[in-house]
Amino acid sequence: MSGHRFYLTPENFSANTAVISGDESHHLRKVLRLRIGDEVQVFDGLGRQWLATIEQFNGQNVNLTLQKSITISVESPLSITLIQGLIKGDRFDWVIQKAVELGVSKIQPLISQYTDFQGVKGVEKRLERWERIALEATKQSGRNVLTTICPPIEWSGLVKELKLPVIFFAEREGNPLSKVIKQLKEQQINSITVIVGSEGGWGNEELFQAAKAGFYLTTLGKRILRAETAGITSVALIQYLLGDLD
Fold this sequence. Notes:
Blueprint: E1 5-7, E2 17-20, H1 22-31, E3 39-43, E4 49-58, E5 61-70, E6 79-85, H2 91-101, E7 106-111, H3 127-141, E8 148-149, E9 153-154, E10 166-169, E11 175-176, H4 177-187, E12 191-196, H5 204-212, E13 216-219, H6 227-242
Parallel strand pairs: 1-3, 6-7, 6-12, 7-8, 7-9, 10-12, 10-13, 11-13
Antiparallel strand pairs: 2-5, 3-4, 4-5
Helix pairs in contact: 2-3, 2-6
């Protein structure tokens, strides 16, 4: 079976055919230099995937014939939303990539009290880049469901809207993760939200609001972790303890 995977929006599929366009078409034609008759895998980002054959190069588009549906899924039974405080430089790109590989369903960039605004200047323009990184990580990891990448949001507009359970990593305040996981296993949950701050940590009011909202205030041990390390470590541990990371 072909190892080349391409993402197509649902609108690019019909009954037995599909059309690859845009960047995916360019990659197929100019980078991989695939030919008519070659087999590829295509997925729609909603969980469906097919084995297809290249039938025709039509200008900038590539016409495919769908051969058969591929029913293999690598999605976790646990839906994880990662709310990660924005980080300076390109380290947030790394968080996006690794979180998608670990099976996160949704990533919400967060602006909190001590977020370095200068370090994340122009972050809205980076949303398209984050979506591209997420797509490449989806293809690489064999997933066929796209991770939702949300525009940045401020803490004040977020805290009251979240549904429990929420694990809030509060640096050195709170219960050990092992204790929180024990409680969550008894609830047999199928979705969870994980909140990790930025380099500057949390303000006292944010900690108070998180506790008042019923979030699990949690720690990752005695050592001080970088923001991006804390985000990916927390996702990996939760996926292992509650999800499908065997």
